[in-house]
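hi! just following up on the protien thing from before. the input was this:
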Amino acid sequence: MTKERVVITGIGPICSVGTGKEQFWEGIVSGRSGVNLVRRIPEHLRPSCKIAAEMYDFDPTLYMEPKWVKRADRFIHFAIAASRLALEDSKLDLSKCDGERVGTAVGSAAGGFQVIEDQYGVLMQKGPDRCSPFTVPSLIVNMAAGWVSMIHGAKGPNTCSVTACATSANSIGDAYRIIERGEADVMFAGGSEAPIAALVMAGFASARTLSTRNEFPEKASSPFDIKRDGFVMGEGGAVLIMESLPHALARGAKIYAEITGFGSTGDAYDIVQPRADGDGAGRAMTIALKQSNIQPEEMDYINAHGTSTPLGDKAETAAIKRVFGEHATSHKLAVSSTKSMTGHLLGAAGAIEAAVAIMAIERNVLPPTINLEDPDPECDLNYVPNKAIHNAKVDIVMSNSFGFGGHNCSLVFKRFKA
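and the predicted 3d structure came back as:
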C-alpha cells in the first residue's frame, strides 16, 4: 500500500507566552517567561506552589458563542481557540473540502478538572438535583476533540489520545498515521489543558513535583539547571493542520514542514519516575529516526521534554546521549526546553512544543532554554542557554514528550522538499 506523505500547513498555539503563531513565536525567541502568581485558585486553597503559567486575560467568547462558554470547561475553550487559530493560519477553506475526509485528533491528559471541582461543590452544598446537566459533557477528556469536530464540520476520524504528558504528541502521531494510511486528507491535531485548579495543583504539590520558588516566578522553571526543584504548571493548547501532500499541493498551501517519524514506547517501569538510563525515551527516539530514514548526526535540533524536574532532566539527557552519541556530547546537536517559558502544559505540552520545533525549521532559529545559569554537571549537552540562536541550520528536528505511566513519544519533522 502506498503511504501518503504528510505535511503541516497550519499552526495554532495559545498559552501564557502568546496567542497565535506570531505572538507566541516572538515570546519564545525573546525568552519571555509566562510564569507568574496563580490567580485562578482561591488563596486558602493554594498549595506550597503558588505560581503557574496562567493565561490571565483569555476570552473564550472570541472563539465560541457566549451561550456555550458556561457549558464547556476551560480546556475545551482552549482547544476551540487553538483550532480556529490553526485553521486561519492554514488558509484552508473547509467549504471546499470533503467533510468526511477531514478528521480530528485532539487530546487532553486531565480534562475538565475545574468542572469536577465546581460541580462537586454544588453536589455537597445544594444536592444532586442542582448539578448542571452539562457536567459530564464538560469534563470528559474526549470533548475537546468532539467540539473541534463539531465546530469545523470534521466528519472523518475523530480520536482522543490520553497518555499523560505525551498526549498531544501522540495525537499528532495518530493524525500522521491516519493521513499516511489514506483515511483522511486533513486532520486537526494537537491538545489542550486547563490544569490550574486546586485539586490538580494540590495533588502535584503533595507529590513534590512542583517548583516552590514562589518569590521569583519567572525564574522557577529552569530545566537542566542545578537549582531546578520541580516543574511549573502551564495551561493552553496547540493545534496543527496536517494534510496529505497531494491535498496541500493541490490548493497551493504554504508548507511549514513534513512529519516523517513517530516513535512510541513504554517504560514498563514506574507510575511516575522515568528510568534513570532513559531506556524507553531512547527507544522512542530511535524508532522515530529509523522511520524518518535519517542518521543521528543529521539531527539539527531537539525540543526536549525538559520539565525542570531533578530526575526527568537527567534521564532525558542520558537518553539523548545513548541515541545521538558524539553528535550530542560534542555539542553539535542543539537541545532546548521551551517549558522554561511556557511552563508544563501536561497533555498539551507535546503539541505546543511540536509547534516550536516546526517554526524553528521555518525561521532557522534555535529557541533558548531560559533560566539556565548553573548547569547540572549531569546535564551537559548544548541546551541553547538563555538566548535564541538566529540564522542557524535547522532542517531536521525532533520533539520529545514523556508522561506518567512510562509513556514516551518522539516526533521528527523535516524541511519540506518536493
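The domain at 263-414 is CATH 3.40.47.10 (Peroxisomal Thiolase; Chain A, domain 1).
The CA atoms of residues 35 and 218 lie 5 Å apart.
cheers
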